[in-house]
Amino acid sequence: MIVGLTGYVTKGHIARAALEATAFQTREVLEAMNADSGVELAELKVDGGMTANQLLMQYQADLLGVPVVRPKVTETTALGAAYAAGLAVGFWASQEELSRNWREDRRWEPSMDDDARSRAFRNWKKAVARTFDWVDADVE
Questions:
Q1: Which of 40, 61, 117, 132 has the greatest CB tally within 10 Å of its CB?
Q2: Share of residues in the chain with pLDDT > 90 (%)
């Protein structure tokens, strides 16, 4: 749902909102994982195409309050498939050997203070809650 649009809103504003929503949703998933596992996140290692967006990576670090780390190889799904095939045919001796191939490319440290982080997340959850039940169930 997009609300609050004015004549001054540009496609850049909408693109930024989509990036911020991605970061907020990631925080929600990670909070659920922390609650289920009892293990607090020390840093978030990321991969995929969206990691090229510097704004998203910094905002993610800010919302989580932990560093976000991008590897040199960002398409790790394809790399994982190659590693699995290489392990299967004996090209690599062990998973430990493969883990030594991982290299950090870039790290984003959180720069948002705790109060701003809490306020932003509280406002996100409030905005999401306001989208509930706005369509009647009998309407197709």
A1: 61
A2: 82
Q: d(Cα 139, Cα 136) in Å, to the nearest integer?
A: 6
CB 65 within 8 A of CB 30: no
Q: HSE-up of 78 (CA within 13 Å, CB side)?
A: 5
Burial grade of 108 (CB within 10 A; 0-12, 13-18, 19 or more): buried
Q: What is the pLDDT of residues 2-17, one digit of tens each?
A: 888 899 999 999 999 9
CA distances from 90 to 76, 93, 98, 115 (A): 20, 6, 12, 52
| Whole-number Å distance between alpha carbons of 98 and 48 | 19
User: Structure tokens of 87?
Assistant: 């392990």
pTM for this one?
A: 0.86
